[in-house]
Each structure stands twice: as C-alpha cells, then as structure tokens.
Amino acid sequence: MIGGLFIYNHKGEVLISRVYRDDIGRNAVDAFRVNVIHARQQVRSPVTNIARTSFFHVKRSNIWLAAVTKQNVNAAMVFEFLYKMCDVMTAYFGKISEENIKNNFVLIYELLDEILDFGYPQNSETGALKTFITQQGIKGQHQTKEEQSQITSQVTGQIGWRREGIKYRRNELFLDVLESVNLLMSPQGQVLSAHVSGRVVMKSYLSGMPECKFGMNDKIVIDKQGKGGTTDEPGKSGKQSIAIDDCTFHQCVRLSKFDSERSISFIPPDGEYELMRYRTTKDIILPFRVIPLVREVGRTKLEVKVVIKSNFKPSLLAQKIEVRIPTPLNTSGVQVICMKGKAKYKASENAIVWKIKRMAGMKESQISAEIELLPTNDKKKWARPPISMNFEVPFAPSGLKVRYLKVFESKLNYSDHDVIKWVRYIGRSGIYETRC
Amino acid sequence: MPAVSKGDGMRGLAVFISDIRNCKSKEAEIKRINKELANIRSKFKGDKALDGYSKKKYVCKLLFIFLLGHDIDFGHMEAVNLLSSNKYTEKQIGYLFISVLVNSNSELIRLINNAIKNDLSSRNPTFMCLALHCIANVGSREMAEAFAGEIPRILVAGDTMDSVKQSAALCLLRLYKTSPDLVLMGEWTSRVVHLLNDQHMGVVTAAISLITCLSQKNPDEFKTCVSLAVSRLSRIVSSASTDLQDYTYYFVPAPWLSCKLLRLLQCYPPPEDGAVKGRLVECLETILNKAQEPPKSKKVQHSNAKNAILFEAISLIIHYDSEPNLLVRACNQLGQFLQHRETNLRYLALESMCTLASSEFSHEAVKTHIETVINALKTERDVSVRQRAADLLYAMCDRSNAKQIVAEMLSYLETADYSIREEMVLKVAILAEKYAVDYSWYVDTILNLIRIAGDYVSEEVWYRVIQIVINRDDVQGYAAKTVFEALQAPACHENMVKVGGYILGEFGNLIAGDPRSSPLVQFNLLHSKFHLCSVPTRALLLSAYIKFINLFPETKSTIQEVLRSDSQIRNSDVELQQRAVEYLKLSSIASTDVLATVLEEMPPFPERESSILAKLKKKKGPGAVSVNELEEGKREGGELNGGGERGGDSSTSAVGSTPSPSADLLGLRAGPPVTAAAPSAGSLLVDVFSEAGVNDDGFLRFVCKNNGVLFENQLLQIGIKSEYRQNLGRMYLFYGNKTSVQFVTFTTTLNVQAKPVEPLIEGGAQVQQVINIECLTDFSDAPLLNIKFRYGGALQNLTLKLPVTINKFFQPTEMASHDFFQRWKQLSLPQQEAQKIFKANHAMDTEVLKAKLLGLGMALLENVDPNPENFVCAGVIQTKAQQVGSLLRLEPNAQAQMYRLTVRSSKDTVSKRLCELLAEQF
C-alpha cells in the first residue's frame, strides 16, 4: 500500500509531504528529487525504483505528485488514485499550480487524511468529500447531529457517492460525450494507426435516489436486439452500431448487470462525474485529412505545401483548428502564405503554427511555406517529424450515439418525462499526426 | 553575472545568459535556445555582411549553447572568419570556438591551419600566443603534421618574445605527447637544451617540462642538460629569497622550477664529472639545510613549497643511491615528518622512507624509526597512511627486528581495515618465512595468522606452511602439537582445519605418545570439524583419515566405520564418494606393507621460490615489485634455507622468480612435479605446471587442418596460417602478446631457415613471421621452433613443434575403383603396408571423418570400396627428390568403436609415419 505521498514544485522543493507508513523515511523525499526531478536524463518512466522503494509519479504542469511505497502494490491502482487526487484538488481549488497548493496546504493535508488511511485509498468522490471537508471555516454550529450522522451513514453505507434527501425543483441532466481521436497517417494517406478514446461525463441534478439506465449504440446490444426480431435492416444497424474495444465505469454502475445483460444502470452521484471511459479502433470517422507536400530545392531551400480537408457534414463547424508543421533545425528564415486563418513561424518550437478559428465540413484549405536553410557541415539528414493537428468538432468520431437515458424514481413523484436532458458530443484531437 | 562594460562587453550575450539562467524549467530553456538559434541562423544567412562585433557575439552565444550541452552544427565558418580579424577579442573568441568545437576531420581544418600559419608568422606576440594555444588545445595529429616543423624554430629563434617562447615550448610538449613520431628535434636539440640558460625564468620553467619529456624517450641526446640543470639549480638554491623577485613564492625562490629541475635530474644517473657532481651534492645539502631552518612564514603555502622541493630532492637522492651521507640525512629529515601534524606529509614521509629502506646505505637509519612507524600503524586515522606504514614496516624488516615487526603486524591485523587485510596477511607470511631463525616460531606465527584472519589467508599461504613443515624434520613434531592444540578451539577457520588435517595425517604419530593426543583423540578432533567444512577440505580430511589407518592401525575399525557410512560412501559429491569408496577398499584389501608404501610420508618438496611472494607480486602487478626485493629474497633465501636440503642451486630460484601470472614456482623445465604416491591430498599441494616440455596435442590438431592457434598461455598466443602447393609451403606465424607489457629481445630459432622476427612485441600487439617450407625428401620429425623473449625482466623460453607433417605435401589423385585395387595390389610388399587398429577418440560421425580425411590432403574416393562404410583415399606426396604414391583405407567399426587403418605407399617410412599421424586423429 502507499507509504507516503509527496508533492514537489518544478525545482524539486517539497510542497506537501504526508507519510503514512514507517518504512518510508525522510530520505525518500530527497531520493526522488535527486533521481527523478533532477536526473541528468529525463526520466520517462512513471514508476521509478530506488533502493527497493517504488516511486509513482504524475506531473501536472510544473507540479510533481509522487506516491511512494516499499511494498509490491498494484501500480494501476496507485495511478488511479493519483489521478483521482488531481481531480479532487481541481474540484476544490481549481488549477493545480504551485501557488494554489501553497495557499491550500491545510486543505490538502485534510484531504490526504481523508482519502488515504494507512496507505489504503478511501472514498475519493468529490461530492461525498465536499459534504464534510469544506473550505468555509468551521461550520460546526450549523451542522446538526442528524446531518453529522447522515454523513457517517453515507460514507460508510452502500451508496457512498450519494446522500439521501436531495431535492431539486427542476430535475435536469447533462450528458457530454467527449472523445479524443488519435491518428498516425502515412504521407500517401494510408492510416497507420487510429483509435478513439472517449469519456461519457454526466452532470446530474436529480431529486431523491433515482435509478438511471443508459443506452448507446453498442454493437453487442444492437445485435442482440436484432436477433430478437426487430425490424431494423441488418445493413443499417451494422453501420450505426459501434464496436467498443474496452470500457471502464464509474463505481456507481452495477457491473453485474453489465456483465449479464450489458445494460448500464446506476444510481448517479450528485453533480459532475465521469460515467464511463471507452476506446474504439474500428470505423473511425477522421474529421480532417492532412495532405503534405514537401519539396527540397537545393541545400538551402525547402518548399512546404499542406492541404487540410474537412471530412464531415457541411452543416457542422469545427473549431480551434491548429496545424503544426515542423521545420528543419537549420531553418534561417520562413515565409508563409495561407488563405484562411493565421500562420506564424515559431522559432522556439521549431515549427510553423497555423491557426484557423472555424471551418465547416467538406471544405478544404491550404498553406504554403518557403523555408530557407542555413547550410551546415552536419551530414545528418533532417528526420522530418510528422505534421500534427489540433481541433474540436461537434460530433463523436467513434460514431457513438446515446440511444436513451432513462430515469426512474419510485419514491418521489416524477417520471422520466419530467427530467430535462441535454446531450452534447465533442470530438477533440488527441495525437493527430500525418507523416511528411 | 559578468559585469557588462560598455566598450567591449557583449550586452546581447549577457542578456541571453541571464534569460537562460532565469528559465523556470528545462522546456523553457530549450525554447529560449531554439529561439536564439533561429535568430543566429537568420543573422548568419549571409544577406548582409555582419560586422566583427556581432559575429563575435553570435559565435560566443553558440559556444555558450554548446557548453550547455546542445549540438551546434553551424557557425564554424563565422568562427574561422573571426580568426583573420585584427582585434584581439574577436580573434580570441574565434580561437576559443575552434579549440572547443572543431573536430579534426572537419573540412575547415585547412582554413584554420592557414589562419594559424598567418598568426604564427605575424610579429605580434599576442597573436602568436593565441595561435600556439589553439594548436596545443586541439593537439590533434593533423595539427602536429602541419606545425611540428615550425614550432621548434619559433622556440629557439633569437628574436622571439619570452612569452611566445613559453607558449611554444608547452605547445611542442603537447604535440610531442600526442604524436612523438612527428616532432623531430634533431638539429634543435642543443639549442633547446640551452634554453635552460635563458634569462627569463618562465621560459626555463616551460622548457624544462619539454626537455624532461623528450629526455625520457631519448636520454642520450639530451645528456648535456644535466650540467646545465645542475648549475641552474645551484643558482636558484643559493639565491636569497629576494633575488628572483617575481619567481619567489612565499619566500621560497622558484619552487616549481626547482622541483622540475630535480625531476629532470632523476632521468639520469649521477653525473660523472666530479665538479658537476660536487656542485649537485652541495645543492642537495643546501636544500636539506634550508628545510631545517625555521619557517619564514606561517602560511601553509610557504611550507608546502619548501616541502615540495625537499621531497623532490629526497627522491633524487634515493634515485642516485650513492651518497650514504645524504641518504642518512634525508632519512632523518623524513623521520621528523613522521610525526607531523599534516596527514599528507606523514603519508609522503612513509612513502619515501619505503624506498629509502631498500637502499643499503640508509636501511639502518630507517630502522631507527620503527617505533614511530608501528605507532603510526596503530593510531593513524587515514587508512591510506596506515597502508603506507605497513609497507614501510615490510620494507624495513630484517632479521634483527623481524620478530617485533611480525608480532606488531599480527596484532594490528585483528583491527586492520578489510581492504588491506589480504595484503597484510601475505606480508606477514613472507616475513615470517624469510626471517625465520626458529621454525617453531614460524609455525606459531602462521597458525596465529590463520586464526586471526582466516578469511584472508589465501591458499598459497597454507600450502607454504605445509611445504616447510614437510621439508624440515625438526619442526614436524612441534607443528603437530601446535595444530592439535589450535584445533581444540571450538570455532576454528577452515584453513586451520586444512593445515591441521594435513599435518596430523602426516605427523600425527609424533604426538601420539601423549595420552591427551592419542590417535583416537586426534581422529575424533578432526572428525568433529568434518561436517562444518567445504568439499575440498572434506576431501583432504578423508585423505588424512586413510593416512591415520596407516599410522595407527588401532584406529582402522573406527575410520572404516566412518568411511562406510552413507554420508561418505553415498555422498552426492563425486570426488568425496570416490575417495570414500577407494580408501575403504584400500584399507580393507591391502596388506599393511602395501598400505605403508602407498601411504608413505610425503617426500620433501623441491626448494623453490615462495609461492606467496609470487602472489604478492601478482597482486601489485608486474613491475611494481622493486628489484631490490627480489635480490633480497635471493640473498636471504640462501642463508635461511642453508640448513635444509636444497633441491637446486640458486639459479633455479632465479628462474622461478618470474612475475608471470602463471605463478609457476619452478620455471618451465624444472623436471616433473612431485606428485603424491597415493591419490591423497598431496595433489592439492602440487603447484600447477602450465606447460612442460614440447606441446604435442597442439601439434596433432594441425595434421588435418592448416589454420588455428598453435599455442597459448597467459603471456603469449601463437597463431598459424599455412598454405601448401606441391612440395612447397608457406607458413605465417602470428605471435600475440597477451599482456600489457612489452616483450623484449624476442627471438625465434628454427632448426630450419626462417626470416628473423621483430625483436620487440608491444603489450597487446601482434607480430608476424613468415616461414617458407620446401619438402626435400620424406621426413617423420617435425621442425622445432624455439622462442625466447624477456617479459618483465625474466627470460622466457619455449619450444614448440611446428605443425609441418608429411601429409601437408599430398597431391590428391582421383582414380576409379579397379585402378585403385590394381595399385593396392601392386603395393603388396609387407614393408610397404602399415596397419593400425585403434579405439575411436571421438564420436564416429561420417561427415566429420570425411572432413578430416579431406583435410589430410588426399583425394577421398567414393564408390570404390564395396563396403560403403569404409573410406578410401589416394594421393601423391610431392618432395623435391621423389614422389611417393600413397593409398589409404579406413574401416570404422561402429559397434566396437574401433578403426582399422591401412596405409600403403611406395616408401615404407612414409606409410609408417602416415599411419602414426592418422591414428591420433579419429
């Protein structure tokens, strides 16, 4: 189990240090700083073993979070915990930065006491935590005994993520399908690898203890129904259903039911949470196609032309498009011409960055650049790193569709129809690269 | 941050550096550097010419970026341009960039060389210095090629400025160190030597470094420097501290120059010219006197400078080793340092004393400090100083103080640092042996040694005890008694058990009279240790038991019982099991007479150099042993072992004194090893003979092949490549030196003609020798190759059979079945046939057999013999005199694993020889 948890700033100074077990000494703090943060060669592995002590670290901007243990722990669990810890901190005080951590160190220690006990992770649900760890001074006088006992029963009860007696005037539910699409494409337009990793994030404002059921166009479910003799044409259903490679759920989802019936039913936590995560690799809609054209004119000049084509319904608008064209290391000057958007040579990043605010579907746009090179006596050829791209589109590139989200609340008097539901799809770029 | 002055400072550079230093993270730093590099690239693009200042600034920035650890692949051209600038700062930055960044195979090297040449020929001393510094900093072979001719001229030219001369001398030194073959001093030699007379002290200091280095390589050419150096030294030494002005360092006149002069003198023997020598002795005396004077300053620099000269003078005195007076004085002065506050001084004093102790003049003087040194060994806090103290004790030990020193070292051993224990153990063992007057003392000492530091006692140490005990009748009884007592300790070291087992097994009878150590008591004592020991020790103990049966018949039943127990006779270790079974049988079957013969007392070991000494030398590496130590060993060895029956005369021990890693104690040809009569523990004691006589197996391997390794030991590897055509052959011998030390006077003699081989083989190098061979007539003896060389001073001698055999001159002949049998019948005279039936040495694999027969040189005839299992070959041996046709038939018998080989040829000697050669191959 986790023996201790440290938070460092970028210089390796310790901001937070919480030790849970005696086998972790003070020197562990320095060992990590010396061997990882100040290592001569950048440490790329998130797990480092130093003198039979394991350090698991994640980095958020300039802040290092490191969990330390001497035991053989489940590394995935430790990282899950670290990510959760980041989420909790973000939920409490916003961005994780040195200043925020310094300003909230009391709170962080309080949180660390609560979510880790003797190194064993405890309830780390933000909603539940916020009921008893608050930022507004001591609320002792307001809290009745009843409330306190309620907290206790909730935290120790079966449904630790939701308290009883929540009431809303308007029962509302927001559902976001957030996907990031990753691609590596050859210069000829051949897909070398592509996958989508998606998340379903929910924000629920529902009264009582509602039972929800979530349905999507999962291939297994659709096929099962198809066999049952529905009127769907086989071709159509094949196109509309998607094959999910793997998925994970929030703890509120009843996994036994998912295993047996593949239906996702749950009692949702109050507020915002991530219902599920999934990954698909088949039949991905690639929102953009990048066509690079690089021509070397002698030793001192390079001509680059890049065309991007949007490949979705014309009615939809992609946003925040950014194309990053790497330039050789001996670039001495760049001239860029583009019809749309703005393009700029950023010397500090060795790249031409081309930004377009908006772009509708089925359009194309191009940029051309002349790069002047300084002749060097180095014989090494330029490695030609891939052109990468960033964007945001209002649909799910995996093809996932929410078929239904039903809410049942037997005790209170509202039905599925009374709940106002909002569904939104956002597709973003992950690592979206085309070789040139 | 460097102060930025308005005129010359580069503001842009300062800003850039401060930006980098303010970067919060590595990423930010890389971003800033990328930006700067892009900026510099755009500036260097060449649209408009840059002025010298900005060029200098950008080159400087590039240099800074490079030193931060990033790759720089441009800007070299701009740096080279800076070289031709007239401004000092610009030129300086250009040279700086080039000496840091330009690698030798760059295309720009020609341009750079040109610029350097211009600067060298300019009259401006600062520019010349810059150029010289650049040459020295780069120091590549190319640089040496381009400038090695020019620099000596600058160095000795009359009109060169002093500062330039200094630079030139040091630059030349650097070039000489990298490529000595290119720096030819020849005509300049005498003028360089005369630089010692230069007015300017700096020039002298620089020149003396150069001369020291040069004279180490060819001392004869620079011999004249001795008298000049002496006169220079005497001028410095006799000068008052104020005379030399700038070169007086904390009241010491020119300490660096003095040290260098003294070091230069150490390259040469004492000057023969009486006047010079007198002057030098006077100088040395003055130095020793000055060291005695009260310090002129309390500053540490003053005493450091003074002591540096003193130590250098003392090493010169030791080097000369001819002035008893000075040696004794030096020793006394060092004695004062032994108790100095400064640890470094104590260390140096002990180290110098060590060498002084080996000089016959000062040995006695060193001995007077024994108490201090022993005290140092005990109380010194620094382990390296303690080590030196131990070394010194070892060096100063002789018969008079051996007992005291050994006792002190033994008592120190208990608390000694782990890193030096093994060496200490060896030293104690050697001293105890070397100066032993009374062998009971020796036995006591070594047994004590094993008791105190058993883990660090190497095999050689206890082998040696046993050798000595066996060779000396008078200590055997005492030794038996002592080990018996030592073994009674509840926990004793395994080495002790080994010694005990061996000695009691041999001489247990000498103490058996005492009821306290009756045979059964002895046996039980030994056997109580049996189960705690490792396999080799147990094997030794088993041998001791069988010897007990011989010595004391009354123990027979007890011991047989032990041998018969399952834990012995069914031991999982093959060696132990075999011994148990064999000894049991031996004891039950053999008569007492047989037993007594088989298990007779071990014969005395032949006298040889102590294996321990060899081990100590090995530990220190060849060359680290002072010659003196060897001589002393010989001198003392004569006295020591005079009483005993010495096997050989002193020359045998001299042969054995090779520091070769084989650590063979008898040399190569010292006769067969004395093996134990029984397969007893005696086999443990026999030192390994790595190669005795002529190599036969190496030779036989080459009957069927032409290339390979003929011979290999720890020093030398001999490879062979050979080719034969008709009666002619050519053989390439490759002599590879496997050590890091060179072999000198390497000669090979062959009882046939051979081209001489290079007389010197560098460490790790290989030389080649070609031998042309012509076969005049048939022969059966192979030519012998005798190899002699010196390795680390010791002569090595080696005799090898060259793998030239008659079959090498085979010419294969193809023939059909009936031809073959017709000829076979023609050669039917009894003397023409040679036949041999022999057992297979290797697995009977048809393909391997075929390959071997083909390698033999004959044609392998298919479908000739009616039995397809058999092999039939035919060939003609070509000699100058005649041709000998030969036929061969090999009949393998797979069931019996036997072969029948029949060879028929027109000459009987040939058939016989072929048959002999081949019989060993299958």
TrEMBL record, chain A:
<comment type="similarity">
    <text>Belongs to the adaptor complexes medium subunit family.</text>
</comment>
<dbReference type="Pfam" id="PF01217">
    <property type="entry name" value="Clat_adaptor_s"/>
</dbReference>
<comment type="function">
    <text>Component of the adaptor complexes which link clathrin to receptors in coated vesicles. Clathrin-associated protein complexes are believed to interact with the cytoplasmic tails of membrane proteins, leading to their selection and concentration. AP50 is a subunit of the plasma membrane adaptor. The complex binds polyphosphoinositide-containing lipids.</text>
</comment>
<dbReference type="InterPro" id="IPR028565">
    <property type="entry name" value="MHD"/>
</dbReference>
<dbReference type="GO" id="GO:0006897">
    <property type="term" value="P:endocytosis"/>
</dbReference>
<dbReference type="Pfam" id="PF00928">
    <property type="entry name" value="Adap_comp_sub"/>
</dbReference>
<dbReference type="InterPro" id="IPR050431">
    <property type="entry name" value="Adaptor_comp_med_subunit"/>
</dbReference>
<dbReference type="GO" id="GO:0005905">
    <property type="term" value="C:clathrin-coated pit"/>
</dbReference>
<keyword id="KW-1003">Cell membrane</keyword>
<dbReference type="InterPro" id="IPR036168">
    <property type="entry name" value="AP2_Mu_C_sf"/>
</dbReference>
<dbReference type="InterPro" id="IPR001392">
    <property type="entry name" value="Clathrin_mu"/>
</dbReference>
<keyword id="KW-0813">Transport</keyword>
<dbReference type="InterPro" id="IPR022775">
    <property type="entry name" value="AP_mu_sigma_su"/>
</dbReference>
<comment type="subunit">
    <text>Adaptor protein complex 2 (AP-2) is a heterotetramer composed of two large adaptins (alpha-type subunit and beta-type subunit), a medium adaptin (mu-type subunit) and a small adaptin (sigma-type subunit).</text>
</comment>
<dbReference type="InterPro" id="IPR011012">
    <property type="entry name" value="Longin-like_dom_sf"/>
</dbReference>
<feature type="binding site">
    <location>
        <position position="355"/>
    </location>
    <ligand>
        <name>a 1,2-diacyl-sn-glycero-3-phospho-(1D-myo-inositol-3,4,5-trisphosphate)</name>
    </ligand>
</feature>
<dbReference type="GO" id="GO:0006886">
    <property type="term" value="P:intracellular protein transport"/>
</dbReference>
<feature type="domain" description="MHD">
    <location>
        <begin position="170"/>
        <end position="435"/>
    </location>
</feature>
<feature type="binding site">
    <location>
        <position position="357"/>
    </location>
    <ligand>
        <name>a 1,2-diacyl-sn-glycero-3-phospho-(1D-myo-inositol-3,4,5-trisphosphate)</name>
    </ligand>
</feature>
<keyword id="KW-0653">Protein transport</keyword>
<dbReference type="InterPro" id="IPR043512">
    <property type="entry name" value="Mu2_C"/>
</dbReference>
<keyword id="KW-0446">Lipid-binding</keyword>
Automatic annotation (TrEMBL), chain B:
<dbReference type="Pfam" id="PF02883">
    <property type="entry name" value="Alpha_adaptinC2"/>
</dbReference>
<comment type="similarity">
    <text>Belongs to the adaptor complexes large subunit family.</text>
</comment>
<comment type="function">
    <text>Component of the adaptor protein complex 2 (AP-2). Adaptor protein complexes function in protein transport via transport vesicles in different membrane traffic pathways. Adaptor protein complexes are vesicle coat components and appear to be involved in cargo selection and vesicle formation. AP-2 is involved in clathrin-dependent endocytosis in which cargo proteins are incorporated into vesicles surrounded by clathrin (clathrin-coated vesicles, CCVs) which are destined for fusion with the early endosome.</text>
</comment>
<dbReference type="InterPro" id="IPR003164">
    <property type="entry name" value="Clathrin_a-adaptin_app_sub_C"/>
</dbReference>
<feature type="binding site">
    <location>
        <position position="53"/>
    </location>
    <ligand>
        <name>a 1,2-diacyl-sn-glycero-3-phospho-(1D-myo-inositol-3,4,5-trisphosphate)</name>
    </ligand>
</feature>
<feature type="domain" description="Clathrin adaptor alpha/beta/gamma-adaptin appendage Ig-like subdomain">
    <location>
        <begin position="700"/>
        <end position="803"/>
    </location>
</feature>
<dbReference type="GO" id="GO:0006886">
    <property type="term" value="P:intracellular protein transport"/>
</dbReference>
<keyword id="KW-0813">Transport</keyword>
<keyword id="KW-0472">Membrane</keyword>
<feature type="binding site">
    <location>
        <begin position="57"/>
        <end position="61"/>
    </location>
    <ligand>
        <name>a 1,2-diacyl-sn-glycero-3-phospho-(1D-myo-inositol-3,4,5-trisphosphate)</name>
    </ligand>
</feature>
<dbReference type="InterPro" id="IPR009028">
    <property type="entry name" value="Coatomer/calthrin_app_sub_C"/>
</dbReference>
<keyword id="KW-1003">Cell membrane</keyword>
<dbReference type="GO" id="GO:0072583">
    <property type="term" value="P:clathrin-dependent endocytosis"/>
</dbReference>
<dbReference type="InterPro" id="IPR016024">
    <property type="entry name" value="ARM-type_fold"/>
</dbReference>
<keyword id="KW-0653">Protein transport</keyword>
<dbReference type="InterPro" id="IPR008152">
    <property type="entry name" value="Clathrin_a/b/g-adaptin_app_Ig"/>
</dbReference>
<dbReference type="InterPro" id="IPR002553">
    <property type="entry name" value="Clathrin/coatomer_adapt-like_N"/>
</dbReference>
<dbReference type="GO" id="GO:0030122">
    <property type="term" value="C:AP-2 adaptor complex"/>
</dbReference>
<feature type="compositionally biased region" description="Polar residues">
    <location>
        <begin position="649"/>
        <end position="661"/>
    </location>
</feature>
<keyword id="KW-0254">Endocytosis</keyword>
<dbReference type="Pfam" id="PF02296">
    <property type="entry name" value="Alpha_adaptin_C"/>
</dbReference>
<dbReference type="InterPro" id="IPR050840">
    <property type="entry name" value="Adaptor_Complx_Large_Subunit"/>
</dbReference>
